[in-house]
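Posted in: Protein Modeling Q&A

I'm a second-year student putting together a small comparison for a lab meeting, and my supervisor asked me to include a predicted structure for LolC/E family lipoprotein releasing system, transmembrane protein. I've never done this before, so apologies if this is the wrong subforum. The sequence is pasted below exactly as I got it from our records. If anyone can share the structure token output, I'd also love a short note on what stands out.
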Amino acid sequence: MSATPSATPFGKLERTLAWRYLRARREHGGASLIAVISFIGIFFAVAALIITMSIMSGFRATLLDALLGGEPHISAAVDGIPQDEAQALAKVISETQDVVSVSPYIEQFVLLSANGVRTGGVVRAVPPADLKTMPILKDGGAAALAAGFGEGRNGGNVIMIGQYLAANLGLQPGDSVEVVTSQMRSGPIGQTPISKAYIVGDIFRTGSAQLDNVYVFMPMEQAQILFQSKGRYQYLDIRVKNPDTTEIVMQRIAEATGYSLLLRDWKTKNRTYLGALQTERVMVRLLVTIIMMIATLNIIVGVVMLVKNKTRDVAILRTIGLSRGGVLRVFLMVGTVLGSLGALLGMVVGVLFILNIGPIEALINLAIDGEVFPAEQYGLDHLPAVLDWGEVFSTGAYALVMSMLVSLIPSIWASSQDPVKALRFE
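Accepted answer (user: helix_wrangler)
Welcome! Here is the predicted structure, written out as tokens:
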């Protein structure tokens, strides 16, 4: 025989009672102001956690993209090897499993001078044909190649320069900039630094102010002359399919080249930086999670107040046959609904905020008549955010589970009351 609605766990009777208690006004013994506050607290906590973790994920993804675009996944030192041998090793490495590309490069610190301004920079010398292998160059260097990058005697005199570096020096495409190296040449007045004037063929933008403020790209053949490295490369830039598996690929490269090269991956170079990012992410998650826990604890007070207001109703329901389990489930549903509605609204607001992060940032900048996120200070030209749907749903699930757990305490108290004593005092 099937159970009657009144006896069915979470059946129509229990759901109707929970809904009536939620809708009832305070003067009629309904949910108290504290319950409403707990709902608002959960809403803000869920929205804040989603927004915070999405922005943190955006920071991490953007910074890692800049790192992985601006430096090799794996670098191999070939400074002491003749160019022909280095090219042979590059061919062997390119045939190694999971290696996508291998490109030689030279990287040197220089002093740049233009329009009466001097500043430091980093020259990255690459073969013109290898520009397309660099993820930070969104057009593969097409504009620079069209301007003559790599053309002419000894690679020509056309270079590429980062957006913020060009702005600091007051440069535009077609302007001239002097590059001063640390290498010295002998002259009538003694040792003087080697320098040469170059034409800006293109101003590139990577999305990372840190890279755009220092990098200059120069044709390999010209850099070998400027840095007195004729017939030699400095490093091999090795790109792999999955940057997280560089340790495995390095072992394969070492075996293929007879362990003749000094290999170093991007994770080793940035170990401290990556550790700080991970620690920051964990601490932010912990902090906002604690805030959410505090918000859900307010449900206990709200449901307790509701139980006290409904003591007489509970006693009557118990005398006409509602079980202790039924009473527990009624108030459990009240607390859970408060938490789930707050979590659902927080999820919606958090997702909408992240999906419209650009216009929101622009609106805030307009309101404060400035920049809430200065690119020069943070090293990024916009507020990054990556919406992780797994993070969104896990946050909502956490809020729901916490709401159920904290609702159990007052619900158990309500179900344990003696109806006879409750009616006597009424």
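A couple of things worth pointing out for your meeting: The longest helix spans residues 271-309. The first strand starts at residue 74 and ends at 77.
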